[in-house]
TrEMBL record:
Organism from which the protein derives: Streptomyces griseus subsp. griseus (strain JCM 4626 / CBS 651.72 / NBRC 13350 / KCC S-0626 / ISP 5235)
Keyword entries, A-Z: Signal
Annotated protein name in UniProt: Transcobalamin-like C-terminal domain-containing protein
Coiled coil (UniProt feature): none
Signal peptide: 1-29
Family matches, as InterPro entries: TAT_signal, Transcobalamin-like_C
Annotated ranges, domain Transcobalamin-like C-terminal: 119-161
Top-level taxon of the source organism: Bacteria
Amino acid sequence: MGTTLLRRTALTTAALGLALTAAPAVAQAQTAAAFTNAPVRVTVTVQGPDGLLFQKKVFTWGHDVTTATGGTHKCDGTNGSAHATKVPTPTAALDHAAKRNGFTWDGTWYASFDDFSVDTVKGVSGGGSAYWSISVNGTPTPVGGCQFEIENGDQVAFTWTSF
């Protein structure tokens, strides 16, 4: 009976030790999940009809965006219920790039899509025959620029596209 009790005590102590060792990792994982809107560094490229208009690495996160035409609205990945928590987005990255590098952009807000349409970047308008397409890592985004999550190291491009 003494040996069985000794084994149980050793197993309990080992299990408790493993649980306490794992606790900081679990807490860290939960903390990381709670801060999904942490800044990321991405490359923002703006390609106009006549060539490159802008290309630079920027730090960005999801945030409220204000445009002259569209007003102020959230642009943090929770748009259209795309994500449960705030995340960095392509349009937020364009907004940060513009503010930090002295150029403007404008966009119309569409409440039905809960997102902006990028209309003008650095004075270049899509007009009636073109639009600003958004791609991340060379792939067009399947949702709006305030709904798509971007990650550290991504290549975010706004490209003037005729139709």
